[in-house]
Amino acid sequence: MRDAAEDQPKQRQQEHIEPLPLFSTTDKNGRMTMLLPGHRVGRAAPLMPQLFTAAALWALTGSVPFGALLGMAPTPAISMFLGHPVTVGVAVLLLLVAIGTTGGVYSRSIEQFGQTRVAGLFATLSVTGGLAAIAGILLIWMLTSDLPRPFDLGAIATSPTIPPELGAVVGASFALWAAITLLRLPGSIAHARRRQADIERLRVEGSSCPGTLTAVNFTNSWLFNLPMFVVEVNYIVDSTPLVVSAHMRTSADRVPIVGSRMIVLTDNRGTTHVELDLASGAAFEPDVGKYAPSDG
Prior knowledge:
The chain is built from seven helices and six strands. The protein is of the alpha+beta class. It has two domains: about 1-30 and about 205-295, no CATH class; about 40-200, no CATH class.
């Protein structure tokens, strides 16, 4: 069963962001974490300007549907302005810019934290936060501009036109979504930073052992159209043969075959990290369609 399905441009973007294949001896799917060689453990601060910019763009874009379509404009004149074809055209252009900026937030998040789960939360927060903010601003502005008008959620079912109460409910849904995302983000960031710190420590202080990929088992699942596997790596420590299992995420054209050379990093804490030894010349599955997701 597929974990997530996205289009081909999303897959290509994902492949450019992180080196594939990606391995993890502890996590799977979106929690798998990478640390590019030479990079430090990620920080949230560098992402904040782009995150707030994306949220502001989503807020500006969302002012048109919330104000004109859902009736949350504070005055009829503002409602007509937000519904004007020129304003709608500008909003569409802002939407395209907002989507591109959100994609930049996603990419920068992966560069910082090496994890699609954290990147997805940052991107989601930029969208939901911006839409919730504009809905809240318009609602407060509308209520303070038209004090005699009662605010009745029952109008959603009884009004012959689209009432502003519906916009308030939609905005509250985005606000709840943003709040849940915000609550999940600190724990996800902490998890990614721990994993990156482990990888950084292993590269500096750990023992590096040559290994061999001895099993590649397809899980019949995908993440962003990237097939997921469970692999086994054999290596030797002090003349003792050992085996470590790991989850692997890669693209359909970069599935290493059994016998590929691996690098196994270990320490005395029992932490293990595995990487494909590209310097030794990696060989990949020649049938590039073998692990591609079906359209069905």
